Amino acid sequence: MTQSATLPSSQAPRALYLSPLDLRANNGMLQRQLQILKALEQAYSNRLDVLSLSSSPEETQRWLQNTGFKARALGGVYPQIARLNALAWYGGNVIACNKLKLIKHFTFPVTTPLPARLIDRYQTIVCYYPWAFHLLGLHRGGGKVVVDLGDVMAERHERIGTRRWISLRPRDERAILHSRARCIAISEGDQAEFQRLYGVSLPVATFLPVDHDRFAHLQTDDLPATVGYLAARGYQNEVVIQALASETFLNTLKTAGVGLVLAGGICASLAEADRARVEAHGGQVLGRVPALEDFYEKVGWVINPVGPSTGVKIKSVEALLAGRGLVTTEFGVDAGLQALFETQIVLTGWPLELQELADTVVRSVRQRPTGDLPFSQASTSHPARQYVEAVQAAITRHFSC
């Protein structure tokens, strides 16, 4: 990409980003896509096009303009057809098969291959999530196609015992990994899983919040003795927040003088009795917060008691970059995060045992004040700085032509 600035506009490299860009979402899926969009925008300047498989071209273009991205939403007949086909695929896979369980295995024979003229136009075609690879016939793009795998999709519900979402058949996933496309894992854990399943060692480009610089300005001294949980709505998060609202957990924290702060869309799933119990024990239920700072300024520690899953743990990454202590399970941080942020991480057991979890939180808040976790963006030796630079380098390397 270093020579692109000297090329005439008509010859400068172009990039196409294909994704299920749901502009109404405010979750990890959208955060990862924002990260990729930002990297592509920096690499290709005004030569970036976007094809959303969820939102219409008009909605996508307005969103790009409102958020300040220098990119153009593809319009015309083909983007509309591809979007409708993707929505039909999503309805059958996610709704009929996974949520309603009307059918056990989902197959979808209709594809809308990316036209050859578009494949030829772009030096790099980035596909977010592997299911669109087959739907759009991206095998025809060879090495110019980059597939961000997001997390391990093929039958993950059977392998790790979680509720099903989008599923691919293993043979389809294997075909992608053994194609000429450049596939990227989102975490070291997923990298190991792909190696185990298919014998393929993939590069890793992990998660980095687009607005990570904001964390550098957060206060890290004299923080309150509080622990926070921030999450979007979702089945697994509902299980966690109900556990945190239990009498056992709340009593232990209150007796030790440790406050609890709950935030995010997941708060809407709290029953009124649970909300009242949290507040009666001195806890706060913030609901959706306008900015992440509104949450992190109220907490000294963050809890992310996640079970077996795939993908990077976005809540863990954000907490560590914010200079907060993190109580999580072995599934909440991979080996790289544990090595880099060792002094900020305390592990608790899985499956969760509420009393053990509560005791771990209390012990962590008491024994290691968050004031011992300074955040200085100017310090090149600081783990947050090292993490940011490493992820930025990986993203640039993998998503450029």
Within the CATH hierarchy, at the fold level, what is the topology of the largest domain? Rossmann fold
Helicity, in percent? 40-55%
Secondary structure class reads alpha/beta
Tell me the β content.
5-15%
> Count of helical segments?
16
C-alpha termini separation: 7 Å
Low-confidence sequence ranges = 1-9
By DSSP, the count of extended strands is: 12
Count of individual domains: 2
| Average pLDDT for all residues | 85
| CATH architectural label of the largest domain | 3-Layer(aba) Sandwich
What is the ordering of alpha helices and beta strands? EHEHEHHEHEHHEHEHHEHEHEHEHEHH
Radius of gyration: 22 Å
Report the sheet with the most strands, covering strand number, pairing sense and barrel closure.
6 strands, parallel
The CATH first-level class of the largest domain comes to Alpha Beta
Order of the strands making up the biggest sheet: 3-2-1-4-5-6
Description:
41% of the residues lie in helices and 12% in strands. With 401 residues, it is an alpha/beta fold. It has two domains: 4-208 and 393-399, 3-Layer(aba) Sandwich (Rossmann fold), CATH 3.40.50; 219-372, Glycogen Phosphorylase B (Rossmann fold, 3-Layer(aba) Sandwich), CATH 3.40.50.2000. The strands form two sheets. It has a six-stranded parallel sheet. A six-stranded parallel sheet has the order 9-8-7-10-11-12, with helices on both faces. The model is unreliable at 1-9 (pLDDT under 50).
Give structural attributes.
single chain, 401 residues, alpha/beta, Rossmann fold, 2 domains, six-stranded parallel sheet, 16 helices, 41% helix, globular
